[in-house]
Design a protein that fits this description.
Elements: E1 3-4, E2 17-18, H1 21-28, H2 37-53, H3 57-84
Antiparallel strand pairs: 1-2
Helix pairs in contact: 2-3
Length: about 80
């Protein structure tokens, strides 16, 4: 599958993304996202890992903020799971 680079040719492989967003979304949605805390935690970890690779402070801080939002989504999903069970 074709890969799309987000930055210049020296872009680290960690920043590469699938060229087909619909296929990526389908791959990530084996269950309802509202009940998927592990998915949100994985995304938070990825955002933090990318923040460590980025030299631009504003971008790195933005990625850390995104990670915190993913953590909140994970907590909400855990609460939903507890209510459902």
């Amino acid at each position: 599958m074709q890969q799309v680079r987000r930055e210049a040719d020296n872009c680290p492989p960690e920043l590469e993304r699938n060229a087909d967003p619909a296929a990526e979304a389908a791959r990530l949605m084996p269950e309802k996202l509202e009940f998927a805390p592990d998915l949100w935690r994985k995304r938070a970890e990825e955002a933090r890992r990318l923040a460590e690779l980025i030299e631009d402070n504003f971008t790195a801080e933005t990625l850390v903020d995104i990670a915190l939002q993913y953590d909140e989504l994970a907590e909400r999903a855990e609460r939903r799971q507890r209510r459902r069970d």
